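Lecture notes, continued. The same structure-token format from the folding unit now serves as the input rather than the output. Read the line below as a description of shape only.
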């Protein structure tokens, strides 16, 4: 099968490796062509437009940061001209309204649009152990479940378009709050001069997901990226829009977003999300 990846950042590149390793033909497009080179060296074909990628592929997976980026990529005259009879799925963090709007426009041009939430970080995607939840029309379920399962730990349809986004919203809340919990706990421990062997087991006990980021916070080494600071800013932006649309308070989330934005302007945009510790430790820098 010919599968296109539109967006070869951290997650798109990891997924691309799994697709190649599964024996599929991979087509890649990225706004910055240089970012496709690692996958090209592994056997992928790079193209220069999203329209070309979609037109050549049997299935297209969009791996961008948010719904705005997906709309900019898809909802233009050049790209919409090639979506007829094409199957496209988005893995971007979007609001329900955004994903439904995109699906409607693609359908008006004869395409089949779906959405997916990646229940995995980059390493799991790369090793084909991550899983996906899919929101799509019932008639597209078999295609997407089989296609995605061929290079992952499995895929499951959870409902119509918009339902996967709802599930991702729940995961985003937990992920963002856990990160801040670990960051503040680690910052307090380090400011108090506690040794890592003293505070590490306590934080791991209090926050079960701490093991994914705490070692990086202890060493202040954020070069091995699981999820970037930039992606957390985007995720929080989407999450705030969703929460606000449901009439719930967003003040806590907005303050969390400010921390990640400060980390971005402080030079950590392309570092691991654990780097938020640095702005908690040094708020005036």
């Amino acid at each position: 099968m010919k599968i296109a990846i539109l967006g070869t950042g951290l997650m798109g590149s990891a997924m691309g490796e799994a697709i190649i390793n599964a024996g599929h033909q991979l087509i890649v497009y990225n706004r910055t062509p240089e970012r496709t080179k690692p996958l090209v060296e592994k056997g992928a074909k790079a193209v220069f437009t999203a329209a070309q990628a979609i037109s050549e592929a049997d299935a297209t997976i969009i791996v961008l940061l948010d719904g705005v980026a997906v709309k900019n990529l898809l909802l233009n005259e050049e790209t919409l001209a090639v979506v007829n009879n094409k199957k496209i799925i988005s893995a971007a963090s979007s609001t329900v309204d955004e994903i439904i709007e995109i699906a409607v426009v693609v359908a008006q041009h004869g395409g089949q649009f779906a959405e997916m939430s990646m229940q995995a970080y980059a390493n799991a995607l790369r090793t084909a152990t991550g899983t996906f939840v899919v929101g799509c029309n019932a008639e597209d379920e078999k295609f997407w479940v089989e296609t995605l399962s061929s290079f992952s730990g499995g895929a499951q349809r959870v409902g119509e378009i918009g339902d996967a986004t709802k599930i991702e919203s729940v995961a985003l809340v937990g992920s963002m709050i856990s990160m801040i919990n670990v960051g503040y706990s680690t910052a307090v421990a380090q400011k108090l001069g506690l040794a890592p062997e003293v505070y590490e087991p306590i934080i791991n006990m209090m926050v079960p997901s701490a093991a994914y980021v705490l070692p990086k916070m202890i060493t202040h080494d954020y070069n091995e990226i699981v999820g970037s600071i930039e992606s957390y800013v985007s995720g929080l932006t989407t999450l705030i829009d969703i929460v606000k649309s449901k009439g719930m308070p967003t003040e806590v989330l907005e303050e969390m977003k400010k921390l990640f934005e400060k980390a971005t302007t402080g030079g950590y945009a392309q570092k691991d999300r654990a780097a938020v510790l640095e702005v908690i430790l040094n708020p005036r820098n």
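Point for the exam: The longest strand covers residues 112-119.
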